[in-house]
Amino acid sequence: MKNSADFELYDKIKKYRRSILKTSVSVMFIACMLVYACACYYSGVNAFHKEAQLCSAINAEADQNVAAFMKKMEDTAKLIMGNEDYAKYDPTDTSKSEFAVLNEENALTERLIELSTLGNYTVFGFLSIN
Asked: 120-124 long-range contacts, Cβ below 8 Å, gap at least 24?
């Protein structure tokens, strides 16, 4: 009987160890999942704040760039419109010959190139009376 009692006790201890092992593995798995979830949450929050900061910086820089571009365009318009020959330019005027119109356009284009406003990215437009 001693052997069977010892075997039963050994079996109970073995089952108890297994249950302790299963419980501790489950607790460790749940703890790891919680740590992972918290890390994901905080990294997402930090990424959101960093993205918001970068967007506001880009918006501020774009605002400054647009303001500087518009200031340069206003200054150029003042210089161009200050010359009466350029201000009176009308490409739809039929009283002038085609050669005269082309010469005026070339002179105006050369002036705009001198003012560094006509390039690959900038087109300076005029609104005529028509």
From this structure: 124/73, 124/76, 124/77, 124/80
Q: What is the mean pLDDT of each run of 10 residues along the chain (130 residues)?
A: 72 90 95 95 91 91 86 81 78 81 84 64 45
CA distance 80 to 89: 11
Residue 126 CB: number of other CB atoms within 10 A?
Answer: 13
Closest CA to 128 of 111, 113, 108, 114: 108
Residue 40: half-sphere exposure toward Cβ, Cα within 13 Å: 6
Find where tokens 């003042």 sit. Answer: 78
pTM: predicted TM-score of the whole model, two decimal places: 0.47
CB 121 within 8 A of CB 127: no
- 80 neighbors 113 (Cβ within 8 angstroms): no
Distance of CA 12 to the CA centre of its chain: 65
Question: Rounded to an integer, what distance in angstroms lies between the CA atom of residue 106 and that of residue 112?
Answer: 10
